[in-house]
Amino acid sequence: MNADQPIVDLRSDTVTFPTEAMLERMQRAPLGDDSRDGDPTVRALEDRGGTLTGKESALFVPSGTMGNLLAMLAHAERGMDVFADSSAHLLNSELGSVVTIAGLVPNPMPGHRGAMKEAALTEAIQASARPGLIAMETTHNGAGGAVLPLSHMERIHALGQTSGVPVHLDGARLFNASIALGVPPAHIAAHADSVMFCLSKGLSAPVGSLLCGRAEFIARARGLRKLVGGNLRQAGIVAAAGLVALETMVERLREDHAAARRLAAALTWLDPALAEPHHVETNILRIDLSASPHDAAAWADGVKPHGILVQASGPRQLRLVTHRHIDDAAVRRTIRAFAAVGGRPRPVDPATD
């Protein structure tokens, strides 16, 4: 590895740093005590988030995990069932919040690329003694950044309404889905009673998420935020960066999607078993290594000396996530590193070959 070259960090889009415009806005943000009289910059961010998602109100929270937790606490009661795709982030990485804190009973549903099987979900709700919440996720992390079809989301929401079960959307990367579908985020959020989205992933803010929904729902969530230790004081310092993120960083997400597709195409050229380019809809690339002679740890360790960081998600899967720090040069370096580990005699890049 050339010591003068920066690390190419593809482990997540959470590694993004705030822009200069964000840092400048943070320095001059009007401040207040958000848990008392209110912070004016936080209130401006919440108003903006509610408008963008088409919801009456919004609540600023430190993390997406907390936003999802507050949605569960505000929508459902302990002992109720929560239904989600079996590979949903909520039922895997956030399972402790579901079971231990919210006290809900997880009901993993079969699905395809993050979309729950609708017949199975209908049967599960009908069989449940205490159905509490339906949770969707778009983009879907476990399904490699897949975007849920709006028609599917509409049917799930209708099922929730006819069954009397609220629907929450884990929209951590909601704006990636919006760019991929070519529709405003409100068109996606319309198919859920509440939605959470992150400011700190591809949008590059340093911290924070927003939970959006009806006014009375957000009022409950605001009280619950204090219960779980999420109240903030002069939070306008970080909320200011979130405002800049929503103003300036949404449209450029399409560059991240293009970089992910380019990586997928190159890896397929290297080894057709590694990637399926037509499955890459946004900025997440999951590589199935079941047909590779190297396991995930070997690939991750192999590219690391080249200055490339990737995430081994289990023994036979790699996750690569593109973001604003992954420019053309970073893509080329990543392709060369994978070619070297894969034993190719020269770097492969379909964009230039």
Key terms:
Aspartate Aminotransferase, domain 2, alpha/beta, Aspartate Aminotransferase, domain 1, 353 residues, single chain
Write down the Rg: 21 Å
Largest sheet: 7 strands, mixed
- CATH architecture identity of the largest domain: 3-Layer(aba) Sandwich
CATH class of the largest domain reads Alpha Beta
- What name does the CATH topology of the largest domain carry? Aspartate Aminotransferase, domain 2
As laid out across the biggest beta sheet, the strand order is 2-10-9-8-7-3-4
Order of helices and strands: EHHEHEHEEEHEHEHHEEHHHEHEEEH
Helix content: 40-55%
Q: Give the mean pLDDT.
A: 93
The tally of strands reads: 14
Computed structural class: alpha/beta
Q: Can you tell me the number of structural domains?
A: 2
Q: Count the DSSP helices.
A: 13
Uncertain segments are none
The amount of beta strand, in percent, is 15-25%
Q: Based on CA inertia axes, which overall geometry fits?
A: globular
Q: What is the distance, rounded to the nearest whole angstrom, between the alpha carbons of the first and last residues?
A: 24 Å
Name of the CATH superfamily of the largest domain: Type I PLP-dependent aspartate aminotransferase-like (Major domain)
Please, could you describe this protein's structure?
- The protein is α/β, with parallel strands linked by helices and 353 residues long.
- The chain folds into two domains: 8-15 and 252-341, Aspartate Aminotransferase, domain 1 (Alpha-Beta Complex), CATH 3.90.1150; 20-248, Aspartate Aminotransferase, domain 2 (3-Layer(aba) Sandwich).
- It contains 13 helices and 14 strands.
- Strand 7, helix 6 and strand 8 form a beta-alpha-beta unit.
- Helix 2 packs parallel to helix 10 (236-248) and helix 3 packs across helix 9.
- The model has no long low-confidence stretch (mean pLDDT 93).
